[in-house]
Each structure stands twice: as C-alpha cells, then as structure tokens.
Amino acid sequence: MPAIVPPVRYAVKQRLLRHLRHCQQAGLRLRYLIVINLLNGRGARPTAKALGLHNTTVYRVAKRFRAQGEAGLLDGREDNGELKLDERYLDILYRVVRSSPKKHGWRRPTWTRELLVATLARRTGVRVHVATMSRALALIRARRGRPRPPVRCPWPAAAKKRRLQEIRLLLGTLPRRHVAVYEDEVDIHLNPKIGPDWMVRGQQKEVPTPGQNVKRYLAGALDVRTGLLTWVEGERKTSALFIALLAKLSTSHPRAAVIHVVLDNYRIHDSKITQAALLGFGGRLRLHFLPPYCPKHNKIERVWEDLHANVTRNHTCPTMDALLVEVREYLWRRNRILAGVERPLVA
Questions:
Q1: What is the number of other CB atoms lying within 10 angstroms of the CB of residue 89?
Q2: Is the entire prediction scored with pTM above 0.70?
C-alpha cells in the first residue's frame, strides 16, 4: 500500500517542525501536526484518533500536501478576495451593538444576529452570513448579558454635571488635614441572593435557604485616600445607624479638621434627627450629596458588589450570626490587605 504522503528529506521535515513551533493559527497548526504525524509513519486513522479529527480531514490535508507541498497547508480561503470583517466593518459593528435596534429603524428592542447582518449591510454595503456575524461579534468581544435598569436622574443635565464637578474638585484639592469618604448602606440577607456559578453538565447546584429571611444592615464609609473601610452594623436602616457611623468616623480621625462625606439622597441622611446630630459634631462633619440616582459615582458601591460576590451570594450560612462573622472577616481582611499587613490569597 503506497504511503499517504511521499517521504521528504530530513531538512524539509525539520523546517516543518520549526514552522509548527512558531505557528499562531490554530487551523494551520493542526494541518502541520497531521502532516508531521503522517511523515513519522503513523497511519491516517491513528492520526485522526490522536488529534480528535475525522479521518476524511486527514486524507484531505494529505492530498493537498502531495499536490502542493507545504503551500497546500495554508488556508485556501485567503485567496477568496477582500476581507469582509475589516477594521471599518468591526468599528461600525461595535457602535451599532452599543445602541438600540430602534435607533436604526427596527421595531424589535433587542439585537439578533440577523438584525445585525441587515443593519450592517445598510451601513457598510457588506452582507455577511449569520455565522460570520458570530465571528465578528467575538472579534469585538461582544457578549449576551442582562441589561441593568437604572433610574434616570430627575435633575437637569447642567445641574447634575455641576454638582458632580463640585464633588470632583473637592476630592481633587482636599487639604492635608481634611478627610473625605464615600458613604452608603448595604443590606445583608439570611436568604442568599442567587448568582451564577460554574457547574458540570447535568448538574444544577442547590443553595439551601433557611426559609424565613432575616436582615441586618451595614453603613460604611470608604476613605478616598487610603481605600480603607469604616463600618457599623444595625438591625434597622435608620438615622440612628447613619449617626453611629458619623460618630465612628469622628473618633477614627481625631486629628482631621473636617471630614467630608459624599453620599446619596436616602432619607436617613437628611432627616431632622441627622441634622440635629450634625450640630453636635461642631462642623467637623460635612455632607456632600450626589445627584439623585447616580450610584456609579459613589465608589463604595463597588465594595458592596465585591462583598456580595465573595460572601453573601449563594452563601450557605445557617444563621445570621454565622453570616455576619463571614462578612466581618471579609471586610477586615480587605482592610489588612490595603494596609499591607496581609497578602491577598489570590495574586
């Protein structure tokens, strides 16, 4: 039985091995592996089994190698003409995906690949297959996700921009003996928030819940300069919880001339009880309110997101006391890492 590929000189085989080591394209690398296995005396079926291929693929690559040599291993589609997914096409696709189909004349509120194909054909004059659109979406690193439902700020755009600029200017020019913090509260639920997790095929993980929910609340303050977190705990999210945090900030920074607190417009932050308590601090504590519904400008929100991701989401603590132990340990460890006292567990 004749060999599936003709024998080659030693120098040719070494060149093929060298090109294989430097090859960056997965398809081309696989074709090199097929030919080198065949040149080493391995049959077509054993080669296909070793590489996880169908044997017809091995025969096809061998046929091209016999006819054209090493050039036959290259992707023949490279000669199909001008590349459709060029930089201009991908740039327009990126901007289209970031917008809504309704802005492009469609009634459907969410994108499908077919709609993207039709929209890009209008915009660029280039029509691609739906499968090619999947490759284009992968090239711009697009993903299917769940949109967030933000509430729009009721303030005029100019007033919102002016307030945010004032806060940025304050934080950017903070005097030496002044301290600034971002403040917010977070709810801790005994019934866990359910979030995505890795599972093997055929498995759906279970997160047992205690049944009757119990809540606790944390009021926290994130230091703008150091990133350290100060917090207090309470059974109710009331003005008393917020005032307790202000008192802790005052005692934690005894040398600070002024402590600036950047916070949202939740009612406990501006209640009559809170206003009366502020007078007792002698002007050392000053509140700076963000525009309504602007959580992304309050940087402590990211700390709470990390707390949920690392502790409360999918948790299996049977009691609130056990859960609060986990919460405290996580926040203490976070402060120790920022202070350089402890190294993170994952680099």
A1: 20
A2: no
Predicted confidence band of residue 81 (pLDDT cuts 50, 70, 90):
low
Contact 98, 147 (CB under 8 A): no
Residue recorded with tokens 């919102």 = 160
According to DSSP, residue 230 is labeled: E
CA dihedral 153, 159, 161, 166 (to 10 degrees): -120
Task: Decide which of 61 and 149 is more confident.
Answer: 61
**Alpha helix stretches (DSSP H) within 173-316:** 239-252, 272-279, 300-307
Q: Where are the domains of the chain?
A: 10-78, 87-139, 157-193+211-338
Can you give 3-14 as a three-state secondary structure string? CCCCCCCHHHHH
Interior angle at CA 205, CA 199 and CA 206, nearest 5? 165
Look up the CATH architecture of domain 157-193+211-338. 2-Layer Sandwich (3.30)
Q: At what angle do helices 130-139 and 87-97 cross, to 10 degrees?
A: 90
Report which residue type is found at 84: K
The number of angstroms, rounded, from the C-alpha of 294 to the middle of its chain's C-alpha atoms is: 20
Neighbours of 132 (CB within 10 A): 14
